[in-house]
Amino acid sequence: MKNKYSSFIVPLALLCLVYSGALKAEEQAAPVGAINIKQTTEAGTYTQKGADTCIKCHDEDEAYPVFDIFKTKHGQQGNKQSPFAGLQCEACHGPGVAGAAAMQVVLDRGGHVGKVRPGQERPPILNFGIKSDEPVEQQNGMCLNCHEDTSHIGWKGSVHEDGNIACANCHKIHTARDPVLTKKTQPEVCYQCHKNKRAEFYKPSSHPVRFGQMGCTDCHKTHGSAADDLLIKPTLNQTCYTCHAEKRGPLLWEHAPVSEDCSLCHTSHGSIHPALLSKRTPLLCQQCHSQAGHPSLASTGAGLPGGSPSGFLLSGGCINCHSQVHGSNHPSGVKLMR
């Protein structure tokens, strides 16, 4: 009898080991809330029905729509990295049952989902955004439970964190498309604080941000950067080269300010002068190049023979002759004229 069943024992034992290992790996890959959901509901701090409890009140007639979250990554129950794989709504908003001291969310408030006497205001739960009464640090702490990864590691100590900016001030979670993640709508979110940049992008010469062809995040890393002005690259020039690669070089004859810093001649967001220049030529060029010995000032017909000066001379623009202002690869281009 022993020999009859011995051939089944070893495969069965191996199958059990593989299954237990898969369960352990699944628990490790799942969010923290998903691992402890049984213990937390048994302890009476979280609702046992999860989102089904919330949508009894927060339905399609609610003043603040919430159903669009099911169209986002946050509302996908099949995704183990999603809040809905574990505690669902309460993974972000905290426990809704009375006595949730461990989460420090509804302390001394009672339960949000409990019964309320007529005329009594329902105890609040953790809310997010500009109108929230919760400390910004606490709001962001809930987001960083999942989003404190390599792409957001620069948030600590960043300008936006020091400015006491909450994640929900910029991001909208209960919408099918977060406006700040779309180039066309992203600038309007940034303009809430950076109002002067809106005016600059409406100047005659500007980057095509207001046309939806560029977003603020094409140049700036909003969650933190080691570079100045939260640039996506270590220097301004390297950031500009991501689009203007033809200006990178190396060139046979280089123009010193070009390789040093683009902002010596150009403004980043908008200008009243062509090509985002900070000044018009020849005034821009004369910041470095003296006019002594060079006819760089505009002339009129009164000072020239025949009284009919050339249009090139009247304009007084240096680039009429020095057209290769960013540098030249021509063997005779030492004066940046070809």
Description:
The chain has 338 residues and is an all-alpha fold. It has a domain at 249-291 and 311-338. The chain has 13 helices and 4 strands. The protein has helices spanning 2-29, 32-35, 37-42, 51-54, 90-93, 136-147, 159-162, 167-170, 186-190, 195-201, 236-241, 256-260, 311-315, and strands spanning 205-206, 253-254, 270-271, 327-328. It has a two-stranded antiparallel ribbon with strand order 1-3. The longest helix is centred in the N-terminal third of the chain and has 28 residues, at 2-29. The radius of gyration is 31 Å and the shape is elongated. The termini are far apart. Mean pLDDT is 79; it is low at 25-43 and 99-109.
**In oligomeric terms, what are we looking at?**
single chain
Please give the number of β-strands: 4
Proportion of β residues? under 5%
Rg to the nearest angstrom? Answer: 31 Å
Low-confidence stretches: 25-43, 99-109
Decide which structural class fits the backbone. Answer: mainly alpha
Cα distance spanning the termini? 97 Å
Shape: elongated
Describe the sheet with the most strands.
Answer: 2 strands, antiparallel
Average pLDDT over all residues: 79
- List SSEs in N-to-C order: HHHHHHHHHHEHEHEHE
